TrEMBL record:
<dbReference type="Pfam" id="PF02423">
    <property type="entry name" value="OCD_Mu_crystall"/>
</dbReference>
<dbReference type="GO" id="GO:0016491">
    <property type="term" value="F:oxidoreductase activity"/>
</dbReference>
<dbReference type="InterPro" id="IPR036291">
    <property type="entry name" value="NAD(P)-bd_dom_sf"/>
</dbReference>
<dbReference type="InterPro" id="IPR003462">
    <property type="entry name" value="ODC_Mu_crystall"/>
</dbReference>
<comment type="similarity">
    <text>Belongs to the ornithine cyclodeaminase/mu-crystallin family.</text>
</comment>
<dbReference type="GO" id="GO:0005737">
    <property type="term" value="C:cytoplasm"/>
</dbReference>
<protein>
    <submittedName>
        <fullName>Ornithine cyclodeaminase family protein</fullName>
    </submittedName>
</protein>
<dbReference type="GO" id="GO:0019752">
    <property type="term" value="P:carboxylic acid metabolic process"/>
</dbReference>
<dbReference type="InterPro" id="IPR023401">
    <property type="entry name" value="ODC_N"/>
</dbReference>
Length: 311
């Protein structure tokens, strides 16, 4: 069994190839995968979650990801998410690979956002706003630049220092990146807004979204979490990674639906619909599009398989 470190995951999963592999997997579809199971496992002073995410392609490969999410880890200088992925042979059940799950999650999450952007953002999108300063947020600009001509990145976070640090890191990677102190002002400039936080209260407000914006919601992963308000969802043409996952876990959608401000029947499509052409993507240039990602186990399986197949 091969062990892939975080560095090997980063080197082995370039975004153009990974995005195309996800596009192909979602286009082909297949049998529905189980919605991930989440368990509350933290202490009173350290809230935490344990998630299990299995997926398989019969006769080819199967795998499972074990994830822990501890939102207050930033106070300890640690990432909020830790995980491992185990890939098995689909014919024998023999383990093939043990993969650093955090690196795998960062890459496939950013790639799924970029895949949605391929269908939902304006082709001329050049300014990306990052809302959040964590590990996933740091991967999003490179992924989005694989499908859109991103020239400028604005970074907003609750901690101005962390926003400055991430902007500096992105500048070293060749982006024109600057921290943004004024979130509404940054939203007024953004073509694509990528949110990657663990927020339980709205951060991006619908009243601040300009026409033509693509809103990419990555962070909130339970029904109790959200990154946008009701108005943002109501103004947008809404898509999800998978319907089953979104209807079980996407607080950004479930909460406005519960409040009567929006209906889940208004979900236009998921990544399978977009990749297969079953449902249309972006319409007019002034349309606001929204992609809500809660994470799909098939994304991990595809990414781990791509890594292992390459040796």
């Amino acid at each position: 069994m091969r062990h892939y470190t975080a560095a090997e995951v980063e080197a082995g999963l370039d975004y153009p190839r990974l995005i195309d592999a996800l596009d192909d997997a979602f286009r082909r579809g297949g049998e529905p995968m189980p919605v991930r199971r989440a368990y509350e496992v933290g202490a009173e002073d350290a809230p935490g979650h344990l998630l299990t995410m299995p997926a398989w392609e019969r006769g080819r490969r199967l795998g499972v990801k074990l994830v822990s999410v501890f939102p207050r880890n930033a106070e300890r200088g640690l990432g909020a998410v830790s995980s491992l992925y185990v890939l098995f042979d689909g014919r024998t059940g023999v383990p093939r690979a043990l993969v650093d799950g955090e690196a795998l999650t960062n890459r496939r999450t950013a790639a799924a956002s970029a895949l949605a952007s391929r269908y939902l953002s304006r082709p001329d999108s050049r300014t990306l706003l990052l809302v959040g300063t964590g590990h996933v947020a740091a991967h999003l600009p490179q992924a989005h630049r694989a499908v859109r001509p991103i020239e400028r990145v604005l970074v907003w976070g609750r901690s101005p220092e962390r926003a400055r640090d991430l902007a500096a890191t992105l500048s070293e990677r060749g982006f024109d990146a600057t921290p943004a102190a004024d979130l509404p002002g940054a939203l007024a400039q953004a073509d694509i807004v990528s949110c990657a936080t663990t927020s339980r209260a709205p951060i991006v407000l619908g009243r601040d979204l300009r026409p033509g914006t693509h809103l990419d919601l990555v962070g909130a992963f339970t029904a109790a979490m959200r990154e946008t308000d009701d108005e943002a969802v109501a103004r947008a043409r809404v898509y999800v990674d998978t319907r089953a996952g979104a209807l079980a876990e996407a607080g950004d959608l479930l909460q406005p639906a519960a409040a009567g401000a929006w209906s889940t029947d208004a979900i236009v499509g998921d990544l399978h619909d977009l990749a297969s052409g079953a449902r249309p993507g972006r319409g007019g240039g002034d349309e606001i599009t929204l992609f809500k990602s809660v994470g799909a186990a098939i994304e991990d399986l595809v990414a781990a398989g791509l890594l292992a197949d390459a040796g």
